[in-house]
Design goal:
The chain is of the alpha+beta class. The protein is 47% helix and 16% strand. The two termini are 47 Å apart.
């Protein structure tokens, strides 16, 4: 006989999926937030409230008792959960990152009870500010890599690449790319521009001043950055002289490159969870 969940644990789980607070539920069904808290800590709602609670979560009363499979539209629930946060805010990105952690925990086989396997906050608390905790799944069907806390937080999920030649190598000159960015002045110019307001136009003199290079080298750097579409070039006429002016076009790909280059230089060794079940080569 299947184990029946307590109604309090089901309500807590449904709240998390829907992205609502105890106060939101309380206002809808006409009770206090303290009452909802008591339910989730082992109490039982009054019987006459059950239909209202079920309607709020769009489930049946049976499903409140953990009976049967809940017919929840997962996509809609995730949309609602994210949209309940402030648009373009730190809270929204934090919520999205926590959902990524939920994906990782689910793959490792943890249950869907809140906090099972540890929360992001838990790992932030146990790591030093300059420390780093990872999680990774290496499967023949793809792989994940997650920086949980504290130095860097990120999530990468790569389903198995069907054709790595077409996906990664065709018409891409990696040696030329790495030669270009192995030039210390080019690399430092990128870091400089990524730290600057990208709306501020500049001339070659910026590199002359900040990188301590001559004008010829500054122009070489500009050519490399233009090659990778990191610059927009315009011409201004100043005192009857045409002057080239540059505007930086940042891409998150550069920051991503730094994240995973760091992993190559300083390999991860502190994993919260790790599954190394991959047998296939990564590049087929």
């Amino acid at each position: 006989m299947p184990k029946v969940k307590s109604i309090g644990s089901v309500i807590a789980e449904l709240r998390k999926v829907k992205g609502v607070t105890q106060d939101d539920l309380a206002k809808c069904v006409g009770v206090s937030a303290q009452a909802v808290s008591k339910w989730e800590n082992g109490g039982m709602p009054d019987t006459e409230l059950l239909p209202s609670i079920a309607d709020f979560f769009e489930v049946s009363v049976d499903e409140l008792f953990g009976r049967g499979n809940r017919n929840i539209n997962i996509t809609a629930a995730i949309f609602d959960h994210i949209r309940a946060t402030e648009p373009d805010s730190e809270e929204r990105f934090k919520t999205m990152f926590e959902l990524c952690w939920d994906i990782e925990r689910a793959i490792f086989g943890f249950g869907n009870a809140p906090g099972e396997g540890g929360t992001i906050k838990d790992y932030e608390a146990i790591n030093k500010p300059d420390g780093q905790q990872y999680s990774s799944i290496l499967s023949d069907h793809g792989f994940t890599r997650m920086g949980i806390a504290n130095r860097l937080q990120y999530f990468l999920l790569v389903p198995e690449i069907k054709d790595t030649q077409k996906g990664l190598f065709n018409n891409i000159e990696y040696p030329a790319f790495f030669r270009d960015f192995s030039d210390e002045d080019v690399f430092n110019a990128c870091v400089l521009l990524f730290r600057r307001d990208c709306n501020k136009a500049f001339t070659e003199n910026l590199f002359v001043k900040e990188l301590n290079v001559d004008v010829e080298k500054a122009r070489e750097i500009l050519k490399v950055l233009a090659k990778y579409y990191l610059l927009r070039i315009s011409q201004l006429e100043l005192d009857d002289v045409i002057k080239e002016v540059y505007t930086f076009s940042p891409t998150p790909s550069f920051v991503s490159l730094l994240i995973f280059a760091r992993e190559m230089i300083d390999p991860p060794n502190n994993f919260a969870f790790y599954s190394g079940g991959r047998n296939k080569p990564y590049l087929t």
